[in-house]
């Protein structure tokens, strides 16, 4: 059996059962358990002898969207003279709907057989809907070949509003009414149709449900279309504003990023100069160590040949001062400027994740790999420079202590 569409048959049965509804020719157990009843709110709308009510309503049950087409006819309860009692049927659709003309024909055929099998002399002959005798309409299976989607209808939200349309309910007229009512289910949870003057007067007098005639129904459709057009125009206006906002945002963000890039270029140039100057200091330090060593060797040779201690000590002190000054002038490495990572101002209202700063932005840039490689080169050069300086310090201190030993030895010669 179909789970896309199926029937419900219902009625009022008096004490002790009251209103009961059962499901036939398909259905889904979860939906059947969750769906609202098809009972009428008899203090707002009520059936009279030889009268009939059609309805269309939306439901959301067991996570499914439902549209149901129903028909109610007057029928008495057993052993009761209570008014407003009825027997009825509903053709329910899950997530789709059928052709209105076919729906009406099948619905009327099912209702006629329901009354013929279960009503005698206007009295319902069973005491529960589970005991209804029903017949499958001959065109029931054809409905499945003409299903269509329902668009732009909010099934989840209930408005708790109801509309009664006082109009002819012949199959041709009802087909047009059902077709136009789908959109109106965004405004009303259920729309009833009747051509009974008594029912219309009753609804009007009670004033609980809104009631309109054919012209009023047309105005309801027009109001809905006007409201939909207003919403469309409003949304278009919002989108246009959004276009202007992102246009301004883009310009500001690009300008900020460009400014940061230019600043970083300047810092890169300054850092490059500092590194080159530090590399030049390494050359100067190496040359100074070589020259100082030679001067010491010359002093040793001069002492050996001339034996003039005072002259050797004086020359040594002069060479040592020159050596120390040169080393001190070239041993310091200037710190490098850090690359700017300040946040880019401006709020972006799209879903694109641009990141919080320039480094995040560069992560998505096709040139980021090259930039990272260049930055790594600077880091490696700096690291090598530091290693050379550490080695230079070690050599300096080693030589310095050797020089002190030499100075002591020279002093010893004087005293000797």
TrEMBL record:
The entry's keywords: Coiled coil, Membrane, Transmembrane, Transmembrane helix
Residues annotated as transmembrane: 380-401
Coiled coil: 214-256
The UniProt record lists the keyword Membrane: yes
Disordered: annotated span: 348-374
Protein name: Uncharacterized protein
Annotated source species: Chryseobacterium polytrichastri
């Amino acid at each position: 059996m179909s789970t896309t569409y199926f029937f419900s048959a219902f009625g009022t049965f008096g004490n002790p059962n009251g209103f009961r509804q059962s499901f036939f020719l398909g259905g889904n157990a979860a939906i059947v358990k969750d769906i609202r009843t098809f009972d009428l709110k008899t203090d707002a709308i009520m059936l009279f002898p030889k009268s009939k009510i059609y309805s269309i309503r939306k439901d959301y049950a067991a996570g499914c969207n439902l549209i149901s087409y129903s028909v109610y006819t007057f029928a008495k309860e057993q052993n009761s003279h209570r008014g407003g009692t009825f027997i009825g049927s509903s053709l329910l659709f899950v997530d789709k709907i059928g052709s209105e003309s076919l729906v009406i024909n099948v619905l009327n055929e099912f209702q006629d057989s329901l009354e013929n099998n279960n009503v005698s002399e206007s009295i319902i002959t069973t005491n529960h809907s589970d005991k209804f005798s029903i017949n499958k309409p001959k065109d029931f299976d054809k409905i499945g070949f003409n299903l269509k989607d329902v668009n732009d209808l909010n099934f989840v939200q209930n408005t708790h509003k109801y509309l009664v349309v006082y109009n002819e309910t012949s199959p041709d007229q009802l087909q047009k009414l059902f077709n136009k009512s789908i959109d109106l289910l965004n405004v009303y949870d259920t729309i009833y149709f009747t051509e009974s003057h008594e029912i219309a007067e009753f609804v009007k007098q009670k004033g609980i449900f809104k009631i309109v005639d054919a012209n009023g129904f047309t105005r309801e459709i027009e109001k809905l279309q006007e409201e939909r057009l207003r919403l469309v125009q409003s949304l278009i206006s919002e989108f246009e504003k959004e276009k202007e906002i992102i246009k301004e945002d883009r310009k500001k963000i690009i300008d900020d990023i460009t400014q940061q890039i230019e600043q970083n270029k300047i810092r890169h140039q300054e850092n490059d100069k500092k590194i080159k100057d530090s590399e030049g200091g390494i050359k100067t330090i190496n040359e100074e160590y070589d020259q100082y060593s030679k001067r010491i060797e010359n002093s040793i040779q001069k002492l050996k040949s001339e034996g003039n201690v005072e002259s050797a000590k004086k020359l040594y002190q002069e060479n040592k001062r020159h050596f120390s000054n040169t080393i001190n002038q070239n041993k310091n490495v200037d710190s490098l400027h850090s690359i700017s990572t300040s946040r880019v101002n401006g709020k972006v209202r799209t879903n694109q994740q641009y990141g919080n700063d320039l480094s995040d932005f560069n992560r998505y840039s096709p040139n980021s790999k090259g930039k990272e490689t260049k930055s790594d080169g600077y880091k490696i050069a700096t690291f090598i420079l530091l290693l050379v300086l550490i080695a230079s310090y070690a050599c300096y201190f080693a030589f310095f202590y050797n020089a002190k030993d030499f100075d002591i030895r020279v002093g010893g010669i004087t005293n000797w």
